[in-house]
Structures are given as C-alpha cells and as structure tokens.
Model the fold of this input.
Amino acid sequence: MTDRLYYDDAYLWSFEGTVTAVRPGKKPGQWDTALDRSAFYPTSGGQPFDTGRIICTGSEANVLDVETDRSGEVWHTLDREIPAGTAVRGEIDGIRRTDHMEQHGGEHMLAGAIWEKLQGMTIGLHLGEAESTIDVELPEGRTHLTDEEVILLEDTVNDRIRLDAPIRCWFPSEEELSSLPLRKKPTVTEHVRIVAMGDFEMVACGGTHPSSTGRIGLVKITGVIPAKGKARVSFVCGGRAFRLFRTYMRSADKAGAALSCPVEKLSKAASELNSRVAEAERKARKFETAEILDMIREKESREDLRGLALSAITLEERDAKAVSAAVSAYISDPGKVLLLGAGERLTFARSADVKIDMGELIRRVGRGGGRPDLASGAGIPECVGVARKILMTEYK
Ligand SMILES: [Zn+2]
Done:
C-alpha cells in the first residue's frame, strides 16, 4: 500500500520514491503507475487529484490523473511508461494543490460555522472548476438562507481565518477518537483521520488542509439555491475569491464609467437607465404601432369578400409588440379581415363579427395556429398572397 506523504506534510511538493507496479492505463499511451510512497493526492472526498511530474534518469512523465483503489494503493496515470523498480522523483503542481486546499479548508470552516450558527448539517463537497458547493440540511427543511444569515456565516468564517489558528491532522487511537467532540460521525471505522481547524471545526477527513486557517485566505459565499430539499451553498476561497473580486471590480468600474457614476451608486443609476429605456421603448412602440396601422389601412380593400374589408400586407421584420398592438386596433372595428406578414412571422386576424376561421387558414398556408379570430405562425411572405387567394375563392 502506498505510503501517503501528504498525510504528514500537505506542502510537500517534491519527494523521492520507487515504482512498484505498472499497468496499461485506460487510454492508449497511458500507464497507471504505483509508487512505494507518494505525495500526490488521489481524487477523494470531493477534492480533485494533483497533477505534476514523475522524473527518473533520462525520462520524465506527466501525471494526468491520480486515483486510489480499494486496497489503498495510489495509482498515478502517466503519459510515459516508467518500469517497476525505477527510482523516481515526484513533483507536485503546488499552485493547483494550494487552490484545492484553500477551497477544501474553506469548506470545513463554512461547515463548522453553519453547524454552530444555524444548526445546519453539510453533506458532501463538490469542488468545481470555478466554484465549490455544499448541500446543507437545515432545521425544518429550509432550503434557503437569508441575506443576514449569509453575512453572518461569511463574517464568522473570515474572522476565524484572520485569527490564523493552527490546523492539525492526526490519526487518533480508538480511545482518543471516542472522546473527541466531532461535528459528525466518521463514515469509516478504521484508520480514522481527524482534522481540527483551531477550535472551530473537528471532523474525520482524509484530505489535504492548509497548515493554519490564515492560509485559506478568504471565503465568499456566491449563492444559495434549493436543491433536493436542501440549501445548496456555492462559495469561493483564497485565490479564487481574490480573482472573483478583481473580475467584479473591473466590471463595476467599467459600468460606472459607462454610466458616469461612482460604483456605490451603480444600482440606482442602472435602475434609472432602465426606466428611461422602457419609457423610450414605449414611445417608439406607440409610434411604430400607429405607422403599421396606417399601412394596414392603406392596403385595405372592400372588393369581392362579401363586403368585408380585407387588408393583405407584407412588411419587413417589425417589433412584435407593435405589430400585435396594430393588429388588435385594426380588428377592433367590425367587418375587418387582416392577413399580415412581418419578416417571417404571419398574423391572420379578423373582427369578432366575421365568420372566418383564421387558425385553420394559417395552417393551410404556413406553420402555426391560434384562435378562430387571431392566429399566428411562421411562413414566407408569399403565404399572405396564397391565403388571400383562398379567401377570394372560398368566401366570395
Ligand atoms: Zn478535510
């Protein structure tokens, strides 16, 4: 079984070892390689594997994946074959691992605070590419957190991070284990490893952790949504929290410059701008509605359709709401039949007193449907002419 060096030192970026077994990997050109000792972390407990290199005299392989099997052996997927018995040096990508330790450590701190402040029990950790999530079982089946609760958790966790309390990991004896105030019961019964984050959190965990809470850096909750009867809390920690802050700040600065206002007044300025845009759109739509209605009326003819007024008209693409308003206005008068194409959209409509099924008519010439008095669909502009011919023939 591989001697897992990260248990004793989570900041061991380089180590010496010997290849003990090699087998073909899942893909051609890959080899699953076991070492007698390794500081590479295998995917487990929601924390992704480490990457890095395995180096031997005259050769060097990239570590593409790290997994553990049931016997506890750690298998490194390499892009080069290194024979069993070879003495090697392993080099871990410390930036990637540090990022994982920040997220994982932050998750412990959050879980501890959620338990202490809200009596919520966290289940599982998903450490994603951009952010991480934990599902929280809250009292009375609540699936959300209030803004105040989010702030309470963030402040509690970040205050404790700034206290820079030591983080300790160890394998206690059975006797010691039974006396420890663990936040939740361990899921394994043998070789239980405990992590204590200062006095704030103590649980069983086989993962890698920063050496003190200060090295988590910063924790920011980015969202809370209901998921499977629990509250799913997403968050970022450490370098990710800083980068998120930088992204938000850049966006806010640009938006502030565009709206000529300081960042603190952005939401007020944006809401005022929205109101002004909505008002301008309302005026423009009113104008466009009147213009379309004029065009519909200009095309109106009273010949050959049982004395009804028929307007068959094709327009360029127009604002859908303006078209709809013009159509409604036109058929509000009695005795009107309208066949209208605007862009690829067809609208066939008639006044309440006219007995023609416009839904059926639109289905005969294009795609769509609707009520007998108002139907819409899609079709080429020629559909309007075809529908006109049908009416002239069948309703003459
Ligand atoms: Zn852990």
Notes: The chain has three domains: 3-92, 98-249, 283-394. The first helix runs from residue 94 to 118. Residues 104, 108, 195, 205, 207, 209 surround zinc ion (CB under 6 Å).
